[in-house]
Amino acid sequence: MKLFLDTANIDEIRKAYALGVICGVTTNPSLIAKEGRNFAEVVRTIASIVDGPISAEAVSLDAPGMIDEAKALAAIHPNIVVKIPMTAEGLQATNSLSNAGIRTNVTLVFSANQALLAARAGASYVSPFVGRLDDISLDGMELIYDIMEIFNRYQLPTEVIAASIRHPIHVITAAKAGAHIATIPYRVLMQMIQHPLTDAGIKKFLEDWETVKNK
Ligand code: E4P
C-alpha cells in the first residue's frame, strides 16, 4: 500500500517527504483554508517538493464549472489530480475529464455504490472517508473491504485511497483490506514511527555502549 500525506502544510510536506515514505499528497478546501494562502500558490509549492500525484479539489457544484476548474488546476503541474465531489454533476465531470486525459480523485465517497459509479465514470482514484463514517458510528473500514472486493473482482483500474484516516490502526487495517493507498495526516505518520520498545532499545544500547566505547 502506498502512503500519501493528507495536508496542505508545506513544512509538514517537506519533513514527511524527506523520510522517503510518502509518494503523493492530498488536500481539500478545509486543509487549504488552514494555511491561509493562495490556493494555486500552495499547490504549485507542493508540486515543487513532491514528485507524485497531488490532489487539489474543485469547488464548483456543476459539471461545467468543475471541468473549467479542473483544467486550470491540471495546467499548474502534470502531477495534479483534480478532486471531484461524488455527485451526479461530479460523475459527469469525471467522465469528461477522464476522456480529456485529466486525472481525477472522486472524493467524499461513503458507499460502495458511489465508489463503483466513480470507477465506471473513469476516476483515477476514489477516496472513501473512513474516519467520518466511524464518527457517525458506522464501520468505515468495512467500506474499504467492500470496495476492494468489488474493484478486485471486476479488475477496475481505479485506485482506492483510504481517506479520513485518524490513527495508526486505520492505516494497518486499510493495508490489510488491500487499499492501494492511505492518505494520512502528518500527526498519524509520526505516530506510526513511534514504538516505546524502539525508544527503550536505543536507550539501553547507548547506555551499554558508554561502558565499552573507550576500551
Ligand atoms: C482526503 O482526501 C481528505 O482530505 C481527508 O482525508 C479528510 O479527512 P477528515 O475527515 O479528517 O477531514
UniProtKB/TrEMBL annotation:
It is found in: Cytoplasm. Belongs to the transaldolase family. Type 3B subfamily. It catalyses: D-sedoheptulose 7-phosphate + D-glyceraldehyde 3-phosphate = D-erythrose 4-phosphate + beta-D-fructose 6-phosphate. NCBIfam families: fsa_talC_mipB. Its main location: cytoplasm. GO terms for biological process: carbohydrate metabolic process; pentose-phosphate shunt. It comes from the Bacteria. Pathway: Carbohydrate degradation; pentose phosphate pathway; D-glyceraldehyde 3-phosphate and beta-D-fructose 6-phosphate from D-ribose 5-phosphate and D-xylulose 5-phosphate (non-oxidative stage): step 2/3. GO terms for molecular function: aldehyde-lyase activity; transaldolase activity. Its EC number is 2.2.1.2. The active site is at 83 (schiff-base intermediate with substrate). Transaldolase is important for the balance of metabolites in the pentose-phosphate pathway. GO terms for cellular component: cytoplasm. It comes from Pelotomaculum schinkii. This is Probable transaldolase. Keywords: Cytoplasm, Pentose shunt, Schiff base, Transferase. Gene3D superfamilies: Aldolase class I.
